[in-house]
Amino acid sequence: MGTARWQALKQAVAQVDPMLRHDVTQWRFEYLKIGLMQFGYSLAKAEQAAQVGVAHVLAVRNQVDVPAETHRVLQALAARVPLVAITNGNVDVEKIGLAPYFSAVFMAGRDGMAKPEPALFVQAARHLALLPRPFCMWVIIR
Predict the structure, then answer these.
(1) Per-residue pLDDT tens for 69-122?
(2) Which of 21, 81, 102, 121 has its CA 20 to 30 A from that of 136?
(3) pTM of this prediction?
């Protein structure tokens, strides 16, 4: 199955269950499982192989070299104001060395619906004991 077919399958799976778009890890598991079943895997074997595949993707996903400048900036910011991270992704801030700068990390799927839905922002504001108001600064990095 080529890349285009995997992408088409990914989108088809999300059409059947749109909530998967809010949890990229579960979404990946589901379309890997279904794709493997299309290759003739039994449900049990497809689930097992999809789990292995997702674990591999997560391991590779967390092989990130964060530039020293990023650490310096986050350290300076965290010394002045509490920081929280809000992500639609599945990077592990602990594994990539950024956890010390954030007082909390809110992840789509695990903690609520993906951005731009408000749930993760509301949780972050509550964590910081803030009311979401225009003075709150949200920095979105893509």
Answers:
(1) 999 999 999 999 999 999 999 999 999 999 999 999 999 999 999 998 889 988
(2) 21
(3) 0.80
DSSP assignments along the chain, one per residue: --HHHHHHHHHHHHHH-GGGGG-HHHHHHHHHHHHHHHTT--HHHHHHHHHHHHHHHHHHHT-----HHHHHHHHHHHHHS--EEEESS---TTTTT-GGG-SEEEETTTSSSPTTSSHHHHHHHHHTT----TT-------
Whole-number Å distance between alpha carbons of 88 and 63: 18
Measure the CA–CA gap between 91 and 28, rounded to whole angstroms: 14
- CA dist list (Å): 58 to 1, 2, 46, 48, 63: 22, 21, 18, 16, 9
pLDDT confidence of residue 127: 93
The CA-based angle 98-121-23, given to 5 degrees, is 70
- Which residue segments constitute the domains of the chain, with CATH numbers given? 3-61 (no CATH), 68-127 (3.40.50.1000)
